[in-house]
Amino acid sequence: MSKLQFNDETCDILSRDLQRAAGFIFVAMPVKNDDRGDYMVRTLVGIDIERKLLAIGEYAEAGQSLMFCKRDSGTAGEDLERMLSDISRLADGRKIRGGLYFTCVWRGQNLFGPDSAELRMIRDGLGDFPLVGFFANAEISHDKIYGYTGVLTLFLDAPTS
Question: Is residue 102 over pLDDT 80?
Fold first, then answer.
């Protein structure tokens, strides 16, 4: 079991003002048996520095690994670019016929600025194709409910043999 150190940058910010940190410091819970290092982001609800306790918006098991993550526009942009690069590689040159994009209500203009910059990044990374979606308070991918993320599903031409 990893111990939380309350003297690093993240915990120092949390201990000074949880309300201020609540918008950009979160808890990341690694997804078990995931080969991509995926994690689910959850909200910090409270912190008790003296007893070294955290309250998060999710059930956690004793001994479960937890990480802190900071959500900011730079990190969000890098993560979206990485995702688009991975998707482009997996598409392997097949034409994208359409897509569905479900993104967290907190992302959009808050992380990417005005005028649909997040959607322009998708177009710039994958090309122009019909894309629909909406903002949500949680995003579903496979059998997991995520938060503070975007989930992109694409419809591709069948592979050629």
Answer: yes
